[in-house]
Amino acid sequence: MEREIKIFEVNEARTEYAEAINRLLPQLSSTPHALNVEQLRQLILHSGTHLFLLQADEVIGAMLTLCVTHCPTGCKMWIEDVVVDKSLRGQSLGRMIVEHAIEYARRQGNATVMLTSRPSRIEANALYRSTGFTQRDTNVYKQKV
Question: Is residue 138 part of a domain?
Fold first, then answer.
């Protein structure tokens, strides 16, 4: 029996979406912050934020956020918070959701899609290279305010 895969942009703040995101976040970050339904609503109302979920056989098993930034140097779309549930890894679901985001960006017009990934995330880095991303020689800086 073929698996039913559905990738969709979240456009409604539902409890089940927040619960699924909160199940995925600890698999992405060692310091996750739980997302309540109101925070989810605020996130999806932001015009520059596109939250995609992947549902495999009725189970939300992956997520990805595409953040749009318009700059004098052009439109940039950043892929953030990519995670596939550990029980579903190795089934190309990460590839599916990344390719979905790339195609979404392509349909929007002239943009550059970018992302960052820690070197320790070997599989994720291999996925990004295999989907056409090239590594840039740059530094990423962070300041918590």
Answer: no
The encoded tokens of residue 75 equal 């439109």
Number of domains within the chain: 1
Instruction: Tell me the C-alpha distance between 128 and 136, whole Å.
Output: 12
For the stretch 43-69, pLDDT in tens is: 999 999 999 999 999 999 999 999 999
User: How much is the pLDDT for 3?
Assistant: 83
* pTM exceeds 0.90, yes or no: yes
Residue 66 contacts residue 105 (beta carbons within 8 Å): yes
Q: What is the distance between the alpha carbons of residues 139 and 11, in angstroms, rounded to a whole number?
A: 34
Task: Strand 59-71: give its sheet, edge to edge.
Answer: 5-9, 49-56, 59-71, 74-84, 112-115
